[in-house]
Every structure is written in structure tokens, then in C-alpha cells.
Amino acid sequence: MKVSVIIPCYNEEEVLPLSHKRFSQVMESTAHDYELIFVNDGSKDHTEELLLGFANDDPHTKVISFSRNFGHQNAVSAGLHNCTGDIAVIIDVDLQDPPEVIPQMIDTYLKEGSNVVYAVRNKREGETFMKKFTAKIYYRMLNSLSDYTFPVDTGDFRLIDRKVLDAFKQFPEKHKYLRGLFSWMGFKQTPFYYTRNERAAGRTKYSIRKMFSLASAGIFGFSKKPLKLAISLGTLSIFIALAFAIWVFIMYLSGKESIVPGWSSTIITIVFLGGVQLFTIGILGEYIGNIFDETKNRPEYIIDKKINFDPHNNQTI
Question: Does the domain made of 2-223+300-307 have the CATH classification 3.90.550.10?
Fold first, then answer.
């Protein structure tokens, strides 16, 4: 059995030497053939030079280098599109997800006969309270909004077999939320519990903006409920406005409300309705933006270099 390890990288020169060493040691300790596919997502530092050096010294190390930064999810997709293993393991380069548990995940896959083994975080070392809290809230909110059920406390770290890989290649959409897609596919899926470590070196490249973008991809890619929420808010605002109008009319007839006062309530009503409208337009904008990106039909990514791959594997997008 051949194992493909997909490792996306973006400006990771500080952690790469240790990462490559540990990944190689772990895979050499198994009885399986393997390939380490490092995907350089348009790094600005010396990530590409380091990867090319690893590939030159080690035929098991393969490198895909993008023409620019296309994002983490597209980097993982490129690795999955180009891997040749019977199973693939998706794991980040920062060593927060310890490569030493990969053999245990393979054992779980073989023992359970699963198509997917997804890693569930028992503990999250080195992460702030706010990061843990927002992650917990997000996964539960995603499940409440989505028409599907997604495992909580998971990331992209998982093992998938060739059947799932081939199914994944059928997805033409541009805004991929990978952990959601793998859950949506079905097949037999088994959890694997582990402790997530602190980052081994360097700093996270996932900014708040990128985390928000990933979160919105999950919500708007797997749920129509935000649209229904907008309808509900619009309906609620109409009823509130009608109720307020009736109340003002009754107060006016009873002589308890004069003509001059009331400007504050008018302003409050306008602001409330305006807020609901802007919120609704924002939700519609997210969906329309996704539709716009899909209809352009641009490639998910463009490959600049491929090292140590079969020359017959010429896929560049």
C-alpha cells in the first residue's frame, strides 16, 4: 500500500527542516511505500528553495509550487489531485498535528475498514482561550445552520482512501470547504482522537481575515438557512413596524401622543429597518459572490513547478 502525505506550505522556512525530518522518519518507520507532497502556496520567503533541496536529496519528497498564493484549501486540493497513493493523509506543516500519529491512523483505517479517518482534537495546546472558544462556537453554529452534520473539533487533518480521492476529483466548485466536502460525501468515516501540539516554530499564517473567509465558506457553502434567516428578519421587521404604527395611532387618538414628539422613535425605526436590510443584502452578496466566482470558471490554482513527479503527470491546474 502506498501512502501520500499532503503538506501545504506558506512562508514556513523556520519549521520546514524539522518538519521534513519528522515526516520522513515517521513514514520510514512504516512498512508502506510513501510520497511526501509539499505544496508551496506562493511563499515569499525561502520555502521553495528548501523544498527543492529536500526533493533533490530524497526521491520520496515531491514538490508542487504555485505561481502565486492561491490559499490553503487550494494547496490541499492540488496535492490531492496529483497524489498517487492508495490512501492520502492531509496534514499541516507546522507540526501542531503530530506526524507520529499517522501510523496509528493507518492502523485505524485498516482495522475499521473505513474510507475516512478524521482526526478529532482532545486537547489544543498553545492556543488562546479566544481561539478555542470561537472554534467551539463556530462548529456548533455550522451544524445548527447546515443541512448536514459535521464532526466538531476537527480540521483538515485526516486520512482518505482512493475511493474518496476519486470522488473528490469530481467536484468542479471553486470555493471548496474541504472538511465539509468530505463529511458531505458520506462513506464510512471513523474518528481518531489525539492531542494537538503547539506550533513547532514560526507563527501562524492564518490571519483573522483568512479564518473568517474559511468560516464563511463553510456556512454559505453548505447551508441555505442564512437566506431563510434574512426572510425571517425581514418579516419580523415588518410586523414590528406595523405594531409600532398601530401603537402610535392609538396613542394619537387617545390624546397621549402629540404630533411634535416621536422623532426619536422614527429614527430608531429607520435605523432598525435599515440594519435589517443591510444585513440581508450582505447575506445575498455572499451567495451572489460565490455564484460569480463559479461562473467565471477560472482554475482553482496554477502550478509553476512540479518536482519528482512522473513526467506523464502533467496536470498544472
Answer: yes
